[in-house]
Amino acid sequence: MNPLYAELQWLPRVPQEFSERLKALGKSTGPLGRELQALALHALDLNQLTKLAKLIRNAHTEGKSLAPLTPFRLAVLSNSTVDLIVPALVASAARHGIALEVIQPSYDQVAQEALTPDSKVNSSKPDAVLFALDYRALPLKLSLGDAEASSATVQGVIGYLQALRNGIKANSNVVCVFQTFAPPVETLFGSLDRMLPGTLRSLVDSINRELAEFVLDSGDMLFDVAGLAETVGLADWHDPQLWNMAKFSFSDQLIPLYADHVARSVAAIRGKSRKVLVLDLDNTVWGGVIGDDGLDGIKVAQGDARGEAHLAVQRLALDLRQRGIVLAVSSKNTDDVAREPFEKHPEMLLKLDHIAVFQANWNDKATNIQAIAEELSLGLDAMVFLDDNPVERGLVRMLLPQVAVPELPEEPAYYARTLAAAGYFEAVAFATEDLKRAGFYQDNAKRANLQKQVSGVAAYLASLDMTITFQPFDATGRPRIVQLINKSNQYNLTTRRYTDPEVTEAEDDPAVFTLQVRLADIFGDNGMISVIICRPGEAGVWEIDTWLMSCRVLGRKVEHMVLREVLEHARAAGIHKLAGTYRPTEKNKLVVDHYAKLGFNKVREEESGLTHWELLVEDAEPESAPMKLVSQGFATTKGGLFA
Amino acid sequence: MDESQIYARLAELFEDVFDEDSIKLTPDLSAKDVDGWDSLTHIRLILTIEKAFKIRFSTSEIGKLENVGDLVTLIQARA
Question: Which uninterrupted H or E stretch holds A315?
Answer without folding.
Answer: helix A305-322
